[in-house]
Amino acid sequence: MSYLFPTYARWEVEPETAEGSIMIGKDGKRYLDFTSGIGVCSLGHRPKNVQDAISKQLDKFWHVSNLFIQSEQETAAKLLTEGAGMDLVFFANSGAEANEGAIKLARKATGRDKIITFVNSFHGRTFATMAATGQDKIKTGFGPMLEKFVYLPFNDTKALQEEIDQNTAAVMLEVVQGEGGLYPAEQEFLNSIQQLCKENGALFIIDEVQTGIGRTGKPFAFQHYQLTPDIVTSAKALGNGLPIGAVIGRKALEDVFGPGSHGSTFGGNPVSVAAAIETMKTIFNEEFLASVEQKSQYLSKKLAENLESLAEVTTIRGLGMMIGIETTIELPILLKKLREKGLLALPAGQNTLRLLPPLTVTEEEMDEAVEILHMVLKEF
After folding, report:
1. pLDDT level of residue 84 (50, 70, 90 thresholds)
2. Which pLDDT score is estimated for 111?
3. Which of 233, 238, 283, 236 is nearest to 105 (CA)?
4. Pair 261, 291 in one domain
5. Residue 28 placed within a domain
6. SS (H, E, C) 263-317
7. How many folded domains does the chain comprise?
8. One domain, residues 144 and 186
9. What is the pLDDT, as a whole number, of residue 64?
10. N or C: which end of the chain has fewer CB within 10 A?
């Protein structure tokens, strides 16, 4: 008997220890972890500098609340704003909370309530972020959603031109749809969103919960497209395993989130902030980001050489170290077979295998992963 709500279809693996790209199960089995905790442990499991920063903060204090000045929050916010090329930060505890904050900020700043999002998007599981998500399966059974969300086809500029108007508070999207199937946005589409938002007085929100903090080889994925969003959200890899999220905004929005307008008891927790500072100091380094670019090119080339000729592989797509392999094989069966061979991977969308390896992964580990993928896919 379990005392937990059965909200997760849990795997048969129970971790005992983990370090870098490797997880050891309680049964002693070794796994190559290409999930990174669903895009969270981008520096791998238990990186020493992050662990040391956490330990140091634990010896000071764990929690005091946001009634107190905490200079470490300012340090983390400075790193985030410099990385994103923006101005201000609100710290939350998760990606859903960050997106919830972004929705509140956009509605309050514009005095409007219509928000445009896209089919197959995923923005979270709170009521506002569930309503923002363009997937019906996320909403089933929960009754009426928060109103005034409109869902358009992804990469469809014409549909956006027809829908956006003077009642639109914001357009919100992921530049690579993660949970929806690893679909990158097109440059022309993103340019159109930015221009149409300006013309209609709407805010441009980019959800970088999964794509941000170096995952695509830039601090944030929108920087591949030379965009200037009004609000960016971050979480997942920000604390490399400790819970933290962030709403990053422009200076023009400062007065909208004044005292009492928004808050969080645990947001910007000092232990999570310590982890975030060390994580960003490592990942936002130019040499580190260059290594991510090199690794992503290496992995993409290896996957193409070994998998594209297989009948079971429809296409390989993604951006940076965020890779989707569309397949004709039922994902639960395929993922279980990969785990049996020692590779941990994720599903995305209806039929896409998702790879989110640590950004610290080695060429040898990438070779091993591709070998396992090739072997298992050939079995089908």
Report:
1. very high
2. 98
3. 233
4. no
5. no
6. CCCCCCCHHHHHHHHHHHHHHCCHHHHHHHHHHHHHHHHHHHHHHCCCCCEEEEE
7. 2
8. yes
9. 97
10. N
